[in-house]
Amino acid sequence: IGSGLVDSEMCIRDSIVVGNNVRSIGDEAFYNCPDLETIVIPESVTYIGSGAFSSCLSLKEITFPENVVSVGANTFSYCRALEKVVLGDSVTQIGEAAFVGCNSLKSIDLPESLLVIYNHAFSECSALESITFGSQLILLDERAFYRCGNLSEIKFAEKSSLVQIASYVFAECPKLTQVVLPEGLVSVSYTHLTLP
Length: 196
Hints:
Shape: globular
Strand content: 15-25%
Strand order of the largest sheet: 6-8-9-11-13-14
Number of helices: 0
Helix content: under 10%
Order of helices and strands: EEEEEEEEEEEEEE
Radius of gyration: 17 Å
């Protein structure tokens, strides 16, 4: 499916099933489809482009095919109704602002394969309550969980590979009152937390 293929005037359906022969969904392919609630993506898809579902205001859930290794930048930014995300076990990175402004997302199961969460990936996910990081995660980039107003619990794996926590990762998360950092952490920016 090509980049920018469907615009808001063409996207009048609330449900879309992507064909089994499709291998990639291009950048902004379904950008700003306000009525789209569900989309079924087949296992044949190995790539989902940046902003592919950005501003799909009614999209409620998404399941990633197992062969997709990256959640691109802005892929689901401002999908305000998004409640459920199932990432495949092959995902190694979540891109910049991938889920920024997803106000209805209460939790997300991060796969063990995840290595990097880039800047602003989950910023302003105001309903997000808890997050558990797998053992292979090595980097939490700047403001990854910035302004997550209901975030009250984060857990790191017992044998975490985490090396770096960048600036303001958990800043302006007023319900987050305690963070136990994993052993082996090499770099923690001075301003990574704003605790009450």
